Each structure stands twice: as structure tokens, then as C-alpha cells.
Amino acid sequence: KYERFERGNCRISIMRSGEAMEQGLRDCCRSIRIGKILIQSDEETQRAKVYYAKFPPDIYRRKVLLMYPILSTGNTVIEAVKVLVEHGVQPSVTILLSLFSTPHEGAKSIIQEFPEITILTTEVHPVAPTHFGQKYFGTD
């Protein structure tokens, strides 16, 4: 399916690793609206929990570029899409931008939950490089 960039898109970074993808998008799309969402896994239950979400007020009218570089289980992205849906964003206008994805856990679980979402990734591999954020931010 062919997608083209249109005015009125916005990008949502899943903090903290999604912020690593911001500069590249900002370099080519300077006027794009931005939003952020912070989701972390609970230490005891391992469930993803939303701690913070800030979106453009008219996000429900926009196509959303959801940025998250390492897609392993898919739990974080599923929670992010649920929050977007609560704000009126349809999964069919959400494009997940990911650098690395696991085929059986991550992508499959997201598509099962939201079959209308589009996932763009550069590499599908059975093991996701979980050290990406530490390497990028220099905290390893």
C-alpha cells in the first residue's frame, strides 16, 4: 500500500527511546506537530502502564506517526494505541515507525489487537536489540 506524506500529520514519541527518532523526522518535516507519551512496565506485574501523555488538541483529525524504535513484545505500543484511541485517533490512521521488530511477538500481538494499524520497520529479527536506547543515550 502506498502512503504519502500529507499536511496535518503529527508525530508521537513513546518516551524515552522513541525520542531517538525525532531528529531525523524533524530534519525532513520541520512543521510537524508533536506529542509524547511515557509508558513503563510495572516491576511486579510486567504490565505496561501509561504515566504521561501530551498530544496536540486536534489529534483526532490527524494521521499519527507513532515512533518506537525497538518493538519486542508489543505491549508498550498496544498501550500507546489505546491512549490514542481514547483521544479519538483511529488505528487506521496510525503508522508505527520502528527500526527493529520481532515477528512473532511484537508485530503479531499489535496486529491482533489493532488489525487496521500500519507498521513500518527496517528489520524483522527473532531477537530485538534491547540495548538500543542505552547506546543512543550513552547510558549503558
From TrEMBL:
<dbReference type="InterPro" id="IPR029057">
    <property type="entry name" value="PRTase-like"/>
</dbReference>
<keyword id="KW-0328">Glycosyltransferase</keyword>
<dbReference type="Pfam" id="PF14681">
    <property type="entry name" value="UPRTase"/>
</dbReference>
<keyword id="KW-0808">Transferase</keyword>
<dbReference type="InterPro" id="IPR000836">
    <property type="entry name" value="PRTase_dom"/>
</dbReference>
<feature type="domain" description="Phosphoribosyltransferase">
    <location>
        <begin position="8"/>
        <end position="125"/>
    </location>
</feature>
<protein>
    <submittedName>
        <fullName>UPP phosphoribosyltransferase</fullName>
    </submittedName>
</protein>
<dbReference type="GO" id="GO:0016757">
    <property type="term" value="F:glycosyltransferase activity"/>
</dbReference>
